[in-house]
Amino acid sequence: MAFLSIEKLVKTFGTQTTVKGVDLAVERGEFVTLLGPSGCGKTTILRMVAGFETATSGTIRIDGKDVTDLKPNQRNIGMVFQAYALFPNMSVADNIAFGLKVAKKSSAEIAARVKEMLELIKLPQLGERYPYQLSGGQQQRVALARALAVKPQILLLDEPLSALDAKIRISLRDEIRAVQRSLGITTIFVTHDQEEALSMSDRICVMNEGHIEQLGTPFEVYNYPTTRFVASFVGTLNIVNGKVADSATGKLLVDGQEIVTSRSLNGASTGDALSLALRPEALTMGRANGLSNNLDGTIDEVHFLGSVVRIRVKFKDSAISLDTFNKPHLPPPERGQPVTVNFGREDILVLDGAPN
Amino acid sequence: MTNSSITDTNFSTAAVRPRPISWSWLGVVPFLLFTLMFLLLPAANLIIGAFQDAAGNFTLQNIANLSQPTILRAYQMSIGISAASAFLGAVIGFALALAAVLGRLPRWVRPSLMTFSGVASQFAGVPLAFAFLATLGRTGLVTALLFNIFGINIYRYGFNLLSFSGLTLTYLYFQIPLMVLILTPALDGLKREWREASAILGASTWQYWRMIALPILWPSLLGAFMLLFANSFGAIATAYALTGSSLNIITILLYAQIRGDVLHDPNLGYALALGMILITGISNGIYIWLSSRTGRWIR
Amino acid sequence: MKQSRIAPWIGVIFGAIYFLVPLIATFEFSLRMERGRYSFEAYRIVLGDPNFQASFGYSAFIAVCTIIVGVALVVPTAYVVQLKLPKLRPVIEFLTLLPLVIPAIVIVFGYLRMYNSSSWLPLTGSARGTDVLLTFSYVTLALPYMYRSVDTGLRAIDVRTLTEAAQSLGSSWPRILLTVILPNVRVAVLSGSFLTFAIVIGEFTMASLLNRPAFGPYLQLIGANRAYEPAALAIIAFAITWACMGLINLFGAMGQQTQRR
Ligand SMILES: Nc1ncnc2c1ncn2[C@@H]1O[C@H](COP(=O)(O)OP(=O)(O)O)[C@@H](O)[C@H]1O
Ligand SMILES: [Mg+2]
């Protein structure tokens, strides 16, 4: 049985159902991310796990024990909030010691544990500082240490990086993951940032409007999205409209040009309209032979992004973006130039649902 | 404010006039002059007067004269009423603010309470005395109701509106709302995450209040208490309208002294005023000292 | 995390009783002038009293003067402190809070000593001079409220950008204050003004000690000599205070609306 198991969890605020029957099983030591747009109910799930909200129905079990109706202070869970949750009237050391003090641990034990935690978050010198004297990144590391000091069974992180600037966000990302690995603590991480989710998680739980769209490893979620929502929410995606030319051989028509897919057509038959998705990094410029697909178009826009150059290619009715690496000796192509784009048969994602 | 130096240079280059700095001083000089002439110097003048005799020579006699029993009792009474009304006002006002901010009451309660507090906190002076006379005076409505319905004559039981308890009760009418007005924003400043973080770390509600919320609120509470204290310590109109000069509190004594009704010794009056400044000054000193000891974490 | 809802309700109900009962009692009392029936006789007498009209008019006039002087003093100061002299902020704030610490009776006592008819600036020597002194004493009384209100209002707008925009169009400093800054803190100034009015209109100590025929001393005089009229006056005074606060809320709400648009 999973270490943390959530079954048929529902939360209703007044007339609005925010969490619509969520099932989630997290293994011991696993790092699972709840990923979804703002307002989809991620925080609400986390707050029910923590005990700040009471579930309307459903159960939450930790290590086999039903905790659905326990108070937060009886759950032995650690939580890191989005921002500003350090106690401003306490020094860093006192913040970290808080949970231990409340648990009536001996002062020698507290001191040792605080020291250990400060070293874990690489701020051994800052124990005497007050929160306002720390940068945002340091504050969040202290918050992490405070949550971990009491050796919780589960660690919950609610968008802990959103309030920080980009550089620190990325370095702290790795740090959190390293700490989590070294302690082997079961973790649920909430974010709306797909890059964060992809880079940190063992598994990602993509959410939309209160339910789970897909649960899988970052690799699965990115490469084999099972729903249109997941395909468009995770990663950048080109969506083009096509028509099934021959359902038996996987022949499709896009703007009058013929391509072939090796993936399932999700039950579409010859003549049906379809939405197709292509990742920018799966596309290459130039004509390819063999089993690849080719589409002829003209270059519409060129965005120089540094290491990557993003190029928009226009066909008759649709357009797609593709990425090429920047090469110093090879200036990027110019607008209006004719171009051929090629991609593999397996790179075409067929989205379910009719095109809109 | 952080980039003031940068913008200052912008100003000097952009301004047409040769010495732009003079303009900014022109904005504050009238204010400083005004506070000097009509706030600081008059107070200083009294303090000096307290150490002079009628001929203008230095003396400590005025200060010594303060030890007359009437004067000492007046100070005592004033401090007692102020402390009692400030303390009760602070406690009750804090409780009301708590109920409004954290009590999960219907939406309309809070704005109503705030508006009403705004009015009641300014409803002081003579009319307040009238209102309490009409309520709890010998012929007041509540006095009459208590007697007619319950057969209780509160004046029989030692209650007197024209006394320590009566005046304290009256002052509470503006002290409580004042506390509500000051403390509501402070309570709003308590972040939900602090309570939740403490709960998830195993703390009880009581531990949250003792270790986090109260220490954070402490400077606000203390400051509000001091303000309430000074507020009733310097008040005179209500007491005067309520009791005439029969109640021996320091403001009424000083008032009578200024009107020349009693003592005919202006320099003693200055000493009385000095005593009042000292008391409010010292109480504020205590406040600053206490809050600087406890508020190291404040920016 | 659910807490019981009983205690907060008890608190609020207790508060409501404490604050409403005296008002109700006073109102009831004010209606009792004629034996055996309720009437507005007390109000009729009070409102018809020429002394009421004169003293109220006088106090209202002084209140308006106080507001004008107060705004003229506070707005430029708060503006300059915010924009150019932030280092002065602690000093200015300390000064504006002093009137909450030094009792009014002490301040006016100091005036009597400093500005009496035999002093270097004999303001109390003439009625006009005393009016000026009374106005100034009210400015000090209202200073904490006026300053806070204006300062908060200035913080809410982007003083710097507005000033720079006006400057780039060639406006001079006094013009900027009058035509750009003042309209933008109109709501804050109005709030401070109404609060000032509420404080000043019934003020007793200063008017009485400076011997001016103001509304506060008139109230006290009636209170000492009449039975039912004081209750009517208390209700009138409460209504005035309430009107001032109501106007503050009204303008506050309007200000928020215009900002949102
Ligand atoms: N206490 C509450 N009362 C009413 N509605 C709430 C409450 N908490 C959250 N909601 C609603 O639930 C929805 C989901 O919120 P949340 O879980 O915070 O989303 P997310 O964290 O994914 O951005 C939002 O529409 C929000 O308005
Ligand atoms: Mg959220």
UniProtKB/TrEMBL annotation, chain A:
GO terms for molecular function: ATP binding. The keyword Ligase does not apply. Its EC number is 7.6.2.11. It catalyses: ATP + H2O + polyamine-[polyamine-binding protein]Side 1 = ADP + phosphate + polyamineSide 2 + [polyamine-binding protein]Side 1. Keywords: ATP-binding, Cell membrane, Membrane, Nucleotide-binding, Translocase, Transport. InterPro entries: AAA+_ATPase (IPR003593), ABC_SmlMolc_Importer (IPR050093), ABC_transporter-like_ATP-bd (IPR003439), ABC_transporter-like_CS (IPR017871), Mo/tungstate-bd_C_term_dom (IPR008995), NA-bd_OB-fold (IPR012340), P-loop_NTPase (IPR027417), PotA-like (IPR005893). It is an enzyme of class 7 (translocase). Residues 4-234 form the ABC transporter domain. Belongs to the ABC transporter superfamily. Spermidine/putrescine importer (TC 3.A.1.11.1) family. The complex is composed of two ATP-binding proteins (PotA), two transmembrane proteins (PotB and PotC) and a solute-binding protein (PotD). Part of the ABC transporter complex PotABCD involved in spermidine/putrescine import. Responsible for energy coupling to the transport system. This is Spermidine/putrescine import ATP-binding protein PotA. It comes from Kaistia dalseonensis. The gene is potA.
Automatic annotation (TrEMBL), chain B:
Pfam families: BPD_transp_1 (PF00528). Keywords: Cell membrane, Membrane, Transmembrane, Transmembrane helix, Transport. It is a multi-pass membrane protein. Gene3D superfamilies: MetI-like. The keyword Transmembrane applies. Residues 75-287 form the ABC transmembrane type-1 domain. The chain crosses the membrane at residues 20-41, 79-101, 113-134, 141-159, 171-190, 211-230, 236-256, 268-290. It is found in: Cell membrane. PANTHER family: INNER MEMBRANE ABC TRANSPORTER PERMEASE PROTEIN YDCU-RELATED, INNER MEMBRANE ABC TRANSPORTER PERMEASE PROTEIN YDCU-RELATED-RELATED. Belongs to the binding-protein-dependent transport system permease family. CysTW subfamily. This is Spermidine/putrescine transport system permease protein.
UniProtKB/TrEMBL annotation, chain C:
It is found in: Cell inner membrane; Cell membrane. Pfam families: BPD_transp_1. Residues 56-248 form the ABC transmembrane type-1 domain. The chain crosses the membrane at residues 7-27, 56-79, 91-112, 132-150, 187-210, 230-251. PROSITE patterns: ABC_TM1. The keyword Hydrolase does not apply. InterPro entries: MetI-like, MetI-like_sf. Belongs to the binding-protein-dependent transport system permease family. This is Spermidine/putrescine transport system permease protein. It comes from Kaistia dalseonensis.
